[in-house]
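Contributing new records

If you add data, match the layout below exactly. Sequence lines come first and carry their own label; structure lines follow with theirs. Keep one chain per record. Anything else will be rejected by the validation script.
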Amino acid sequence: MMNTAKQRIEALRGALKQEGIDFYIVPTADFHNSEYVDGYFKVREFLSGFTGSNGTLVVSAGEAGLWTDGRYFVQAERELAGSDITLYRMGEEGVPTIQEYLKKNVSDGQTIGFDGRVISASFGKKLEKAFEGRNVSMVYERDIVDTLWTDRPAIPASRVWAVPEDLCGETAAQKLARVREKMKAENAAHLLVSKLDDIMWLYNIRANDVACNPVALSYTFISMEEAVLFIQKDALTDEMRGYFRDNNIVCREYAELPGFLEECAVCGKIWCAESDVSYLLYRLVTKRGGVIGKDSPIGLLKAVKNPVELENIRKYYLLDSAALTKFLFWMKKNAGKMQLDEYSAAKKLDGMRAEIDGFIELSFDTISAYGANAAMMHYEATAEDKAEIKAEGFYLVDSGGQYRGATTDVTRTIALGPVTDEMKKHFTKTACGMLRLADAKFLYGCTGRNVDIMARLPLWECYIDYKCGTGHGIGYILNVHEGPQSIRWKYVADIGETLLEQGMIVSDEPGVYIEGSHGIRTENVLEVVNEVKNGDGQFMGFRHLTYVPIDLDAIDTSYMEASDIRKLNDYHAQVYEKLAPYFEGEELEQLKAATRAV
C-alpha cells in the first residue's frame, strides 16, 4: 500500500505539471506568518505527514525535500519514514538553505510557485535576489493544493471579545497614540499590520482562531486619522461592533484588504514589516509608493509589560506553579503503582490547571514525554500513540495556560525511579545553566545574545549543546512565543537582536536531548528588572516568575560548583516561601522535602 504522503506528493506533481510549475514551496504558515496555525492552513502537514510547527516543503518532479530546525529532527525522521521526502536539517554543516537549494537546482526557463498569501515578504525578496538576472519566473497568486485537499477544514471565524480595561493597564486609544508617535518618528503616513498578536494587543481584543493562541484572523491599516480593522463579519457580535465604534476603529470585511490596498488614498510611505506581511500584500503595497520594510513598532511596545500586566502575571505564575508542583508530587507518588501513560498524565495536569480561577485554555498542547520520547523537543502523546510510564527513568512535562491575566510556560523533568549517573550529570548541568542565567547581572544595552552563555556554558563544558535558543518572550493573554526579544547564542540576520528592557519577560530553558535515551529540560520564566545604577551604568538582572521545585532526586552535587549549590538552595528557599500558602498536610511536607537545602 502506497504511503499517504507519497500519494499526495504525486497528485501535487500532476497539478504542477498542468500549471507549468517546476518547483513548489509549501511553508508552515497562515496569511499572517503565524508560528502556529489553524487546520485550514496546515497544507505542509497534509502533504508530508510531518506535524511539527516549523517546516517548509519543496516539491519538484525529481525530489521532495523538507526543511526543519533542530527541535524537530528526531520527530521529522520518524514521521517522514516511507514518504521518500528528504529531510534537510537546517543549521547542520553542509545542509543548504532553501534559497541555496533552489539556486542550484532551478534551471533557466523554469518556474517557482507558491501561495503568495502564506510566504512572507522577506522570504519572497530573498528568492527574487537569488534569481536576479536569471530567466526564472515566480508564480504566487494561486493555491495549487486547494483543489487536491477535498476535505479541507473551513477558515476559522471565532467570536471576538474585549479584554476588560482593568486587565489591560492601557486603553486601545492610548496604544494607538503611542503607535502613531512611532509612525511620526519613522516618517510613515500609514502602518499595515498583519501579525495577529500585535493586532490583538493594540485593540485589547482576543478570539480563538488558532488553538491555544487567542487571536482573530485580521489585518489593520492605520493612518494618522483613521484605524481600519479587517476582520470576518462572523467574528463580530453587536457588542463588539459597539466596542469598535466607541474606540473609533472602522471595521471592514477580512477579505477586502487586497482591494482596499489597491484603491485607498495614500499620502506618504507605508510601513509594513517584511517578516510578517505576505509577499502578495507586499507586492500590492509597493505599487502604491514608498515602503518602510522594518519591524512593526508594536512588537517592542507589546513586549515591555506595563505595571498592571506585570502584577497579574506574577499572580498567575504563582497559581500555575502551585498546580504544576502538586501534579509532579502526584506523579512521583503514583508512577509504577497505577496504570499511567503519557497521555493520561497530560490530561491529569490539564485538568488541574483548568481548576485555577481565571483559566481560559492551554497556552499550547501539553508535552508529556517519558524516557526516549523526551528527546523530541516538541513531542506530543495522543490517545492512540503514547508510552506507558514506569517507576524508572525521566519524565518531562512542558506545559502552560492562558488565564485572564497571564500566559504561562514552564518545563520540569523528574526522576520517577532509578536513573544512570550520566542522566544525573545531564540533569544537574541543565539545572545549573538555568539558575546561572536567572542570577545573571548585566549592563543595560545587552541583548539575549550577550547572556545566553550563562545558561549554555555548563553543557558546553561537557561538549553538549541543545539545538534551539535558550529563551523567548511570552505574551500577555496571548501567544506563548513572543518577540522581539530572545536569548540565543547565534546571530540570526532575519531576526536581529533586541535590547533587554525592564518589564520584558523571557523564558530560560536549557536542556539535553539524547536520541533514543532521554530528554531533559528545565524552564523558568523570568522578569527583566533594573538593578543598581552607578557610574558604570544601569545594571540589570532577572527575577523568577516560576516557582517549581527542581527534582533533588536527580541532582548530583559532585557536578556543581559551590556557587551553583548556593543558587539551588536560594531558589528552593524562595519556592517554599512562595508556595507554602497553597499547600497543607501531606503536600506541605512534600514541598518541604522537595525544597530542602543540599
